[in-house]
Amino acid sequence: MCGIVGYTGKQPAAPILLEGLSKLEYRGYDSAGLAVRSGDALAEVVKATGKLKNLIEMTDGGKTLPGLCGIGHTRWATHGEPSRANAHPHVSGNATGSGSGPVESDVVGVHNGIIENYEELRQKLLHNGYRFYSGTDTEVVIKLVDYYYKKYKIGPIDAINRMMVRVRGSYALALMFKDYPGELYCARKDSPLIIGVADGETFLASDVPAILKYTREVYYIDNLQSARLCPGEAHFFDLNGDEVAVPLTTITWNAEAAEKGGYEHFMIKEIHEQPRAVKDTLNSIIKDGRIDLSASGMTTDLLQSVKNLCIVACGSAWHVGMAAQYVIEDLCGLPVRVELASEFRYRKPVLGENSLVVVISQSGETADSLAALREAKSAGIPTLAVINVVGSTIAREADHVLYTLAGPEIAVATTKAYSAQLVMLYALAVELAETHGKLDEESYRFYQDALLKLPEQMERALENKERIQWFAAKHANARDIFFIGRGLDYAICLEGSLKMKEISYIHSEAYAAGELKHGTISLIENGTLVIGVLTQKALIEKTVSNMAECKARGAYLMGLTGYGNYNVEETANFTVYVPNTDPHFYGSVAIIPLQLLAYYTSVSKGLDVDKPRNLAKSVTVE
Ligand code: G6P
Questions:
Q1: Residue with CA at minimum distance from ligand 1 atom 8
Q2: pTM of the complete model beyond 0.90
Q3: Whole-angstrom Cα distance, residue 173 to residue 120?
Q4: Beta carbon of 314 within 6 Å of any ligand 1 atom
């Protein structure tokens, strides 16, 4: 979703802001803009619709905007269509027709999030003489700050605080005040915002990659806090306007991790980084030969007390939950529910005593997952979050956190974060099984060894690339693709199908193979591609029969199975093999050919692989 950046320091701000915005492109956007000011001069605003390169061209890479202090924004439309007038930055005064040029306004700002009561606030401001040039909630919130700033003749922090008390919704806001040259002001509630400091320079951004080139020293500003940023300094304030101490944290990700490193796209780079992401994640929780989740603060007593689990997540993280459900139920004998966060938050979920709610999220900022976490917490149920982004909101609010070590993931379609989440959930399953007395020492060692072998097996699964590339090119014009499987294979299908549809724009569906004949089989026509996932030995024959039923109706079949299951070739037209692993953990190897298939299909079609249309990496609104 929207990305915000800010800079105040000793270098020209605009090129740094544009570069920061390019690092946030993955979040999804439809327009972009900058506001830069030179000393006491008025801020100059430039906005462009479409790709960031339009803004880069308009400003000659930022050269037309001199000044050492500024803010920037990539907008993903929520209120108001994508247009230049609706693009940020927004101003407290009346903007010119195009929205670009020097602005007389006292307050200029950018915003990520949604102001829920913006209509009521707009009416209030109209009543007080304000006029609106855009359809955005952001313009309302900036004018509200301006209103308090003038009405009470107070400083920026007090004006921001009054605004925070008055608005409902989520926001990360970065503002410049005409009377305070060289300073940036910011505030946040439920939308991501980090502040980085270096010698004589201060940065703000929605996400780490935007500032990683300049500094690794960051502050995570808390909910309902505001900050005043001057070159090389950041001061934080609570809602009363009192200064508060926020700890400085060092980011361990390196800058190269957020670059393409010779690959054509981030997605293919991240696909290749999976063995490393899985290895790093496992190494962080397997110590002295045993799984150790104590860094999360979960005690053996807590794990022993768990009688059922509810896994809540969105998108691919939900698919991790679907796979984990099979693994945990099978290894631990504990009931597991898997809920879409967007549904969970509006239900009255009946969670018994001794439940554990597990929220899985790469970004740690997904609005629905955060709301679900809060729902669980308010019901007094212990919560565990499995998160990739350190310091993110969900990580901070959950009772317990397990961090995946996938590093920065830039491509919108997740791959390495998914794989890291999967192994973290496997480890949780093994640990729970052990604490519940379901595993003897030999079985415990067996599963732990099986986990440790996964990175190498994933590496081997990546070797199949060329064949899959050829197959993808051949089927790039498919209209529909069906992914079918049973049990854990169905969970793998869900993720394979999502990868395919989100980046290739081919309609695809994941179906539990046994359900096909209850309706979906009527969609099979001559040449329809059906992909059968066949890793679970006990279920292979049954799924192969379902594939045969499709073939009899004209389908073209791809089979995905473990080495040695040659009989699949008798039915499938094209078979892909992956290294064998323990049946519980097949998802980790079997997903790789499906990710590659989606990737090469998208490449064959010449699509924007890393930034598919209409999608955002981090969905911070409902
Ligand atoms: C978006 C991303 C998906 C991701 C989902 C949940 O839709 O495109 O890749 O799985 O959000 O995100 P989270 O950050 O909570 O894992």
A1: 617
A2: no
A3: 20
A4: yes
